[in-house]
UniProtKB/TrEMBL annotation:
It comes from Streptomyces mashuensis. Residues 80-578 form the Amine oxidase domain. It holds the Pfam family Amino_oxidase. This is Phytoene dehydrogenase. Residues 1-28 are annotated as: Disordered. Signal peptide: none annotated. Residues 1-16 have a biased composition (Low complexity). One of its GO terms (molecular function) is oxidoreductase activity. It comes from the Bacteria.
Length: 621
């Protein structure tokens, strides 16, 4: 079995197709299966992680003879999905090469240096696509974090997670901000009956000021309907209903619409409640509530990293993968996947100079974002598997981060702030308070920066309050000024001055974004979830026997574009590859979202009612 080869590896001659060698499609995705040979030996020893799950023992790079005999895999994409697939495959004895179009690994999860910001031997200021948020209901990604060695940590990179203790909804117009401690719900009742569930949700919702009691009761009732709905109803009915309609938001108060329907949906899930699938939104809310109740969770509901992402996670991960024998080829954009004999015979990649080359392997794993992956699926590939063509119906939108560097520590709260009334749907977190063992002034920048306020901008098509333009219409400088003003509109409007212009040192906007001008561009968009999206999401296994898909757009139970979804689908892709290869290696563990056992009988009853065309028993209108 041949090692993945291209002209940059120096291991075998390859074909250079030249600028006209592609059939006209662009960018990249992933691959699958032939034989197994040495993979059975990889299961001889296993290790048990802190979660008690058995995994194939990590394998060193090994001798050239062993690597020459190993099945080869080309992983196309170096984000969370691609690195997860490489990790699982390398532990099982496969010879893995990762091809990434950018010159950095980690995808949207990575942090990056602010150019020209370092002075006096310090590291550059840390920028990022958007802040990291790793809730406790994630189970697969935390397992991977535990398996990435980190000096001084008994649980690897997982020990770099720090729990927040509260969240704040910042209101504008002089209204008091709403602060919610994560432990306010407490432990759930011994038995989660419908009555106990309603009391729990009502107690939480009552902390939202200005909501009438009957609207709180209605919201709790709608959640109970979801929690007791069978999978057939969730997939067949609620996937087709917008969250806004499901909540009956149109006929209720402005506070109800803004707090429980529009605001949270837009800010947390980066989509619009008026069109977002109830299945997607309610799945996320269900997971958060169980997490807050202490059910089926890996940790606290809101966790962040204790350092810039590359320092706390991505860098150690890449180092570990290299130790397992994984090879990385950066600056290699996949332009085409070519079939021969019903299998992917080669991937055509383009380097930073524009030269195109052929990459061959036994298996291909497409681990790119959907907007880039589908441009690599030519007509022949789409004919071979119709689910690839269905991905054209998936939609992406802008959700991008900007960082403000401050000369004084500014820990607004110990958690994330949802600036719920801002036209650009901002969320933020003050990061220095979490970076234990680091002195921001001593470690980063020019010595004068003490904090980083990292902000996500979720709405790019609504006019702002400073220039009256959408974010896409603004120049980067105007985006920064507008975001700063919108932050202050909610934080400085009740007699306190939380953000002062005098402490603003500088800002950094994700370089993937080019707003302003006649054609604004965003090279790293986010999958969104309008009604019906679920039906167009592909599975990890394709009809092409050596091509596999992973990424946050591939179908999984979390049904939301997340790092957890990217990690879980990479595990599914590796399992499909192992099946196709006839491998005896242990399969990856894929942990589903938690389901309360007390409610299973009600879901079975609902399945019976659904088959008869009846409403959910708690759906009283």
């Amino acid at each position: 079995m041949a090692r993945p080869t291209d002209t940059s590896t120096g291991t075998a001659p390859t074909t250079d197709h030249g600028p006209g060698g592609s059939n006209g499609t662009t960018r990249r995705r992933f691959a699958g299966g032939l034989a197994a040979v040495v993979t059975t030996a990889a299961t001889a020893a296993t290790v048990t992680t802190a979660t008690g799950t058995a995994h194939a023992a990590p394998r060193p790079a090994g001798s050239p003879a062993r690597r020459a005999a190993a099945p080869t895999v080309a992983v196309l994409g170096g984000g969370v999905a691609g690195l997860t697939a490489a990790h699982e495959l390398a532990e099982r004895g496969f010879d893995v090469t990762v091809y990434e179009r950018k010159t950095a690994l980690g995808g949207k999860a990575r942090s990056m240096d602010v150019p020209g910001s370092a002075r006096g031997g310090r590291r550059p200021l840390p920028g990022e696509h958007g802040f990291r948020f790793i809730p406790g209901f994630y189970r697969n990604l935390p397992d991977t974090l535990r398996r990435i060695p980190f000096p001084g940590n008994s649980n690897g990179c997982h020990d770099n997670l720090v729990a927040s203790t509260e969240v704040m909804l910042a209101r504008t117009g002089g209204r008091e901000d709403i602060r919610l401690p994560f432990r306010s719900i407490g432990q759930p009742p011994p038995v989660l009956t419908p009555e106990a569930f309603l009391r729990t949700v009502t107690a939480l919702a009552e902390t939202f000021q200005g909501l009438p009691a009957h609207e709180v009761a209605h919201f709790a009732g709608r959640l109970l309907v979801w929690f007791t709905s069978c999978e057939q109803r969730r997939n067949g009915s609620w996937e087709r209903v917008p969250w806004f309609d499901y909540l009956g938001a149109a006929g209720r108060s402005e506070n109800y619409r803004q707090l429980l329907a529009i605001g949270i949906t837009r800010n947390i899930i980066a989509t619009k409640a008026e069109v977002a699938s109830t299945r997607t939104v309610a799945t996320c809310i269900e997971a958060f509530l169980y997490n807050a109740m202490g059910r089926g969770a890996d940790g606290e509901p809101d966790r962040v990293l204790n350092a810039p992402t590359n320092e706390a996670w991505i860098g150690p991960w890449v180092t570990h993968l290299r130790s397992l024998g994984v090879t990385f080829r950066l600056g290699c954009a996949v332009r085409d996947l070519r079939l021969a004999g019903g299998r992917v015979a080669e991937a055509v990649v383009e380097d930073t100079s524009g030269a195109r080359r052929s990459v061959t392997a036994d298996h291909f794993v497409s681990a790119m974002p959907v907007e880039h992956a589908r441009t690599t699926w030519n007509a022949g590939l789409r004919a071979a598997d119709p689910q690839l063509a269905a991905c054209d119906r998936l939609r992406t939108d802008w959700m991008t981060g900007i960082q403000f560097y401050l000369t004084e520590p500014t820990p607004i709260i110990h958690g994330h702030v949802n600036h719920i009334d801002t036209p650009w749907s901002l969320t933020s977190v003050s990061q220095a308070q979490y970076w234990r063992g680091r002195d921001f002034r001593a470690d980063y920048g020019d010595g004068s920066v003490a904090d980083c306020l990292s902000v996500d901008v979720s709405e790019w098509d609504r006019p702002g309050i400073l220039y009256g333009k959408t974010a896409k219409q603004c120049t980067p400088e105007e985006v920064a000024r507008e975001v700063w003003v919108q932050l202050k509109s909610g934080l400085n409007d009740t007699g306190r001055t939380v953000l002062r212009d005098s402490v603003l040192h500088s800002w950094f906007l994700d370089p993937a974004v080019s707003p302003g001008g006649p054609r604004p561009e965003n090279d790293e968009q986010l999958l969104i979830h309008p009604v019906g999206t679920w039906y167009h999401r592909p599975t990890a296994r394709t009809a092409v026997p050596n091509l596999f898909l992973c990424g946050d757009y591939v179908a999984c139970d979390i049904d939301l574009a997340t790092m957890e979804g990217a990690n879980a689908t990479a595990r599914e892709a590796v399992n499909a590859l192992l099946d196709a290869a006839g491998s005896g290696a242990e399969r990856c563990t894929v942990t589903p979202l938690y389901r309360a056992p007390e409610l299973e009988a009600l879901k079975r009853q609902d399945a019976w009612r659904y088959r008869l065309g009846l409403r959910n028993a708690f759906d009283v209108g």
